[in-house]
Amino acid sequence: MQGGPNYYVPAAILAVALVAKLPALVRGWRSPMVRSVNLLLFLPCVGFVLSSAPTISFVNRLSGISNLSALLVYGLLTAYACACLVLTEHWRGDTRADAGAGTRRRVRGWILGCCLVIAALVVLFSLGEAPVERTVDFDTYYATTPFIREMLVLYLVAYLVAACATAAVCWDWTVDLTRKTAGRERTTVDASMRVGLLVLVVASVANIIFGSFKLMAIAARWAGHDWDALNESVGPFIALSGMMVGCGFLVPVFGPWLIERVWQPLLTVIALRPLWRMVRRRSTASPQRVLLGTPWYSGPEHLLVHRVTAIHDWMLEMVAYCTDEVRRLAHADAREAGLAEPEAVAVGLAAMFKAAAYDRARNAPADEEQSGLAAAALRSAEARYRGLLVSISRALPKAPAPHPPGPTGPGGWGRRATCWWWR
Question: How many domains, the chain?
Answer without folding.
Answer: 2
